[in-house]
Amino acid sequence: MSQVDVIVPCYKYAHFLRQCVESVLTQEGVDLRVLIIDDASPDDTPTVAAALIEADPRVQYRRHAVNQGHIATYNEGLNWAEGDYTVLLSADDLLAPGALARAAKPMDHDPKVGMIYGRGVAFHSDQPIPEWHASAESSGLEIVPGSEFLEKCCTAADNPVCTPTAVVRTRLQKELGGYRQELPHAGDMEMWMRFAAHSPIGILSSLQAFYRLHSANMSSYWFNTILADLRQKKVVFDTIFDSYSHRINDAERLRSVANRSIARESFWQAILAFDRGDLSSHHIMVTFAVNAYPGLRDEPEWARMAWKRRLGPRFWSALRPLAQRIRHVWLNRVTQPS
Fold this sequence. Notes:
Elements: E1 3-10, H1 14-25, E2 31-38, H2 45-55, E3 59-63, H3 70-80, E4 85-88, E5 94-95, H4 99-109, E6 115-124, E7 141-144, H5 146-156, E8 167-169, H6 170-176, H7 187-196, E9 201-213, H8 215-218, H9 223-244, H10 251-275, H11 279-292, H12 300-311, H13 313-335
Parallel strand pairs: 1-2, 1-4, 2-3, 6-9
Antiparallel strand pairs: 4-8, 5-9, 6-8, 7-9
């Protein structure tokens, strides 16, 4: 039976910890350990952990004397892990029933697969966990070449993996190393791309985890957060292609695809900023977009933006409703059958 180590980093999540750990301990079909790392939480985490350890010998616990931050905590957990497979599960998230066995079985069958992930379902912190119906569960699996996974990341300029669903081969994880300190907000995306540069990736259609959304994290996700996110993604792609281009088919084309995708996302954020009269954010976003992908200046959207900038935000604000009506009428005409 496969051995799975589930790392549970915990900081200020004592009130979620028991539910998280129980979602792991009730997994069937694998031998497992739960490795709780308390990053000097100022709450009841030690008390909750002590009760979990007393109730089940599969639970182990470490506590930091001072807070070290999430990247250092993650990497400590990766060093601690010894099982065949490793999962990183935040103390406020939960595994779906059967998740570990569904991932471990195909990895047992094909030792070349370095990682398997599946679907995650989000729920807000003040809401109950969504209902899960085993009878409706799909267990389809697709094994894709790492290059295909990388293409998906570059085209979308986004992370397709819901982190608590990711089950990785521990041996390969040890070879690849830990999370990068310089990527505190996009380290997981870089990690999954690192795996894809070295191995095929498995994608399960089944629900594998529930991840919790906190209202405090959702309230300010606009300019500063978006720009920081785009900058981190740019560093992710640069890091991957600088480090592993010799392992990636068509690496230069993929780098260009990634840069264009990041630039276009920044460009459209710049357009939104212009439309709401925020010229400072507009110019910062445009500058970032062009630096990421200079070819953006040759695309049709750039000419339209230049026209709007010549009009100015005040005149464009007055003209915009008329332009939208004209565009709507034109789209209706060209899409109607002749």
